[in-house]
Amino acid sequence: MKRRRVVAGNWKMNLNSLEANDLVQDLLSLKHESARIILGVPFVYIASLARLTNGSNIEIAAQNCHHEQKGAYTGEISVEMLKSIGTDYVILGHSERREYFNEDDTLILQKMQLAHEAGLKVIYCCGEPLSVREAGSQNEFVQNQLAQSLLKLSAEEMKNTIVAYEPIWAIGTGKTATADQAQSMHQHIRQLISAQFGQEIADQSSILYGGSVKPANAEELFSKDDVDGGLVGGASLKAELFGPIIEANL
Ligand code: PGA
User: Fold this and answer.
1) Which residue blocks in 42-137 are alpha helix, DSSP H?
2) CA separation for the pair 249, 230 (Å, rounded)
3) Which domains does the chain have, with CATH numbers?
4) How much is the pLDDT for 1?
5) For residue 249, what pLDDT band results from cuts at 50, 70 and 90?
6) Atom 9, ligand 1: which residue's CA is nearest?
7) Which residue in 4, 37, 77, 152 has its CB near the most CB atoms, within 10 A?
């Protein structure tokens, strides 16, 4: 089985309801039927956008979930709630969640397992800060992140997980990893998956690059053997930017 190419958008805390609908309508009208597209949207738009994209090649992801099944957690959203409104994926381990909400790998693992249990698929993010990259220890850093979370999943859970490598220094900075830097880390991640889960699962796992992906650099990044697509923040907010990125991955 060939692994699937994916372009995922991460809207973060952007767009009002009208803008969100317009953007998805624009993306649907691009008719890139062979592309696999996932949109990470704010909780409040999931139900309506899941209906709007039903039957299309666009799947909907939440950007977070709570780490307990249910209960007295005022203001929080559970995996079961997400599943029940048509959510396909949940993005976990994003560097902004790690940094601003103190999420560590133990918590991320807990959320991943809960999400899988509820029948949601996961986009798992990892990546090193600038200081680590400058010290040349990015491989060890990411290996350590994976060892505490991703590599503790079951084989079945791993099969339903997409990995996104997002070097923190490249997120929202306009600074992109070179295609060779991305390829080298993706190859490293695939080897780690293979060592834990076997070559077949590693070969089938989609590994996306994230961090200032834009139309100008998408094609080169996506041309690398182990780069199976992208997780796109800023450039996913406009169809005229996201469209060409989707095309670059066809
Ligand atoms: P960016 O964000 O494309 O705006 O750098 C990527 C992400 O945070 O997923």
Assistant:
1) 43-52, 79-84, 95-100, 105-117, 130-134
2) 8
3) 6-248 (3.20.20.70)
4) 62
5) very high
6) 233
7) 37
HSE-up (13 A, CA, CB side) for residue 164: 29
Q: What value does the mean pLDDT take over residues 43-61?
A: 97
Instruction: For the chain, give the mean pLDDT.
Output: 96
Residue 144's contacts (CB-CB under 8 Å, 6 or more residues apart) are: none
Structure tokens at 192: 């780690």
Question: Where are the extended beta strands (E) located within the chain?
Answer: 6-10, 37-40, 58-62, 89-92, 121-126, 161-165, 207-210, 229-232
Tokens for 238?
């406009």
Q: Which of 17, 23, 111, 8 is nearest to 59 (CA)?
A: 8
170 C-alpha vs ligand 1 centroid, how far in Å? 8
Q: Which residue has the higher pLDDT, 171 or 207?
A: 207
For ligand 1, is residue 167 a contact (CB within 6 Å)? no
Ligand 1, residue 171: give the atom nearest the CA. Answer: 5
Identify residue 62 by its one-letter amino acid code.
Answer: A
pTM: 0.97
Instruction: Return the residue whose CA atom lies nearest to atom 6 of ligand 1.
Output: 233
> For residue 207, what are its two tokens?
């590994």
pLDDT at residue 223 greater than cutoff 80? yes
Q: Is 219 a catalytic residue?
A: no
| Assigned token pair, 18 | 């009208």
Nearest residue to 45 via CA among 57, 61, 58, 68: 61
Contact in structure between 230 and 7 (CB atoms under 8 Å)? yes
Q: Which of 67, 73, 21 minimizes the C-alpha distance to 46? A: 21
Alpha-carbon 67 to chain mean position: 18
